[in-house]
Amino acid sequence: MRIWDISPGYLNRQSLLGEHRELHGIASILVNGKKGYSRHPETLRWVGCDQALAQRHRQLACEMALRGYREQSPVLIQLGSGTIWPTVYIDQPEQQFVLLKVKYAERESGRIPLPRNAQQLWSQHKYSVLARDVQLYKDIGRAIAGGRADFVRIAQQLTELLRVPPSAGGVKNALQHIWGHVADLAPAPEENPETWSLRKLLEETQHRALLHKEPYLTASTALSELMMWCE
After folding, report:
1. Structural domains in the chain (count)
2. Residue 13 belongs to what domain range?
């Protein structure tokens, strides 16, 4: 059993759908008290973290939707404030990238290329961070530019930041930035994008980015995970 901690964007089709199935299995154990794999280490680390598991499910569902899959099996757990995430990892985030590199050596890769260094990892996460903390966005960017970012530390920091709900203003700020990458890739819409809802702005950004294979956004965690916070 495996619930990854890094962004679902790094998973290939088989891993993405496989995690989705296994997450439902763990949710069933936690909610319904089923025995099954109740003593498995992956199950045990989610005990008391039901809402976090539901949030991970939404991350998976948003990534699946971006790739054209229809997710029709919500977990019966309500999201709420003060979501508690597991305090332990089966494998640390940086090690998860190593495991996927080995796993995908002879297979298809995920939507987001596995990062070769801290700079690439940051470029893939930067708009997700911008949506949550502008000052941290600046601080990490400076650390990366100055060569002061350790891959192990930043992999865990960025993974855990994606668990933090952004504000509506933060999401809007990030979406306005990523819209700039695709605004000129198609004729200007009849409506002013400033009047669009956050969801519509992201959906149009997703459509243009995938249609034109815009390299920066198609390798961005924000392209899928921000949809969680546009609903």
Report:
1. 2
2. 1-98
